[in-house]
Amino acid sequence: MNEMASSRSNSALEERLAEVEAAYVAANPSSLAAHLAATRPLPGGNTRSILHFSPFPLTFAKGEGCRLHDLDGHELTDFLGEYSAGLFGHSEPVIEAAITEALADGIVLGGPNRYEATLAETICARFPSIDQVRFTNSGTEANLLALAAARLATGRQAVMVMEGGYHGGVLYFGQHKSPLNVAGPWVFGIYNDIEATSAVIEREAHGLAAILIEPMLGAGGGICAEPAFLAMLRGSCDRHGIVLIFDEVMTSRMSHGGLQTRLGIIPDMTTLGKYLGGGLSFGAFGGKAKLMERFDPRRPDAVSHAGTFNNNVLSMAAGLAAATRVSTAERLDDLWAAGEELRAGLNALAQARDVPIQVLGTGSILGFHFQRGPIRRPQDVWPTDPLAARIQADLYALLHLSLIESGCYIARRGYVTLSLPMGDADIARLPAAFDAFLERHGPVIADYA
Ligand SMILES: Cc1ncc(COP(=O)(O)O)c(C=O)c1O
After folding, report:
1. 241 burial class (0-12, 13-18, 19+ CB within 10 angstroms)?
2. Could you confirm whether domain 3-87+329-448 is CATH 3.90.1150.10?
3. Which of 97, 214, 292, 300 has the most C-beta neighbours closer than 10 Å?
4. How far is residue 103's CA from residue 22's CA, in Å, rounded to a whole number?
5. Beta bridge partners of 136
6. pLDDT < 70 regions, the chain
């Protein structure tokens, strides 16, 4: 957000947005009615904050392949992909068959089932940092448990996270840190700032149990960690006996062995989630055997890691089928390449029309930003005052509702993922819709971004 933008009113932009919002309201009466009905039992009609957007979210009736159908009968291409958990789309036959077969044999067995150890074996074989793994119900839980394991192993309490990092609903360290966060003590690094972050590590090392980092900021807009920054963290952790944890809840889809394999930097522990349950609820944390061994219940000094649904039959069966028979190394590499090509194409469109928008990310996760110039740290895109924040929110709303109108469902914050069922023609819908958006609104955006 440049200074010129924040020193003026945003009335032209507000007018544009009002037009697009009015069209959205007119096109979606059933979703509006569903939203209004939901506001009685659910605060704001919502049970997962990120799914709310103004003026009201679409309610979906059905998903099929990479398509969504909303209550008003629109068909949209699903470029949100359930914030990356929807890697397999909505009707992958191999996963559907695995779920059906598992259902037939009972789902709350109260003991180990015939899927979990094989899924664990598959995950250990894929991720170089994982000798042993435990399952959880969500990525949030996986991170909480990985931090607990690091504290146990080191006898230290503090954890370094990055300003702008997101590790779950109670582990959110954005510009405005969540009041729902669990207690620290937290120490903050600055993403991709080697000098500042290594100085903090050197100062705090004696009390640091872990450094927890996303190798690409997912919620933070697709900013990628630079290899030299991760290498600095790796070296510092080795020197000071700090546990380096990569949160690959989103980025593990970037290759068969996650983004860590693509980058060649291997952490001590890795947390996983999202698509690895085949589209069902899932989380996992794993690492070197010496960090995981205290979870062995046969040991006299074992720690108890509870969770009624840790090995729930449906997630285990769906995850196993997905990992072994759908998300092959080759398909993940192809999807990564498709994402790189899409990102380059979107950036070329913005440049060709001289509109100050850039798309960040890596592989099949992309993030739109209304800004020219390099973006290396989350702070580079944080609004500097309330008006700048309002303009930024309006720009994202304009993009979001315009793309929905063109049949492309993305996240309000400009977040996009690709999924395996997408063919070239499906992916091509996004650049076409984006170009129409640039043509219609580009001049107004240029005044504000
Ligand atoms: C990087 C990262 N870590 C952790 C989480 C939390 O996962 P869950 O929503 O399954 O708790 C997310 C969710 O978006 C995430 O993006």
Report:
1. middle
2. yes
3. 214
4. 45
5. 283
6. 1-10
**Could you state, in order of their start, the residue ranges of all structural domains in the chain?**
3-87+329-448, 93-326
- Do the Cβ atoms of 53 and 80 come closer than 8 Å? no
442 Cα distance to chain centroid: 28
pTM, rounded to two decimals: 0.96
Half-sphere exposure of 224 (CA within 13 A, CB side): 18
Q: How far is the CA of 415 from the centre of ligand 1 (A)?
A: 14
Tokens of 186: 């937290």
Q: Whose CA is nearest to atom 3 of ligand 1?
A: 167
Q: Ligand 1 pocket: which residues have CB below 6 Å? A: 83, 138-140, 143, 166-168, 214, 218-219, 247, 249-250, 273, 283
Whether the bond into 421 is cis, omega within 30 of 0: no
CATH 3.40.640.10 correct for 93-326? yes
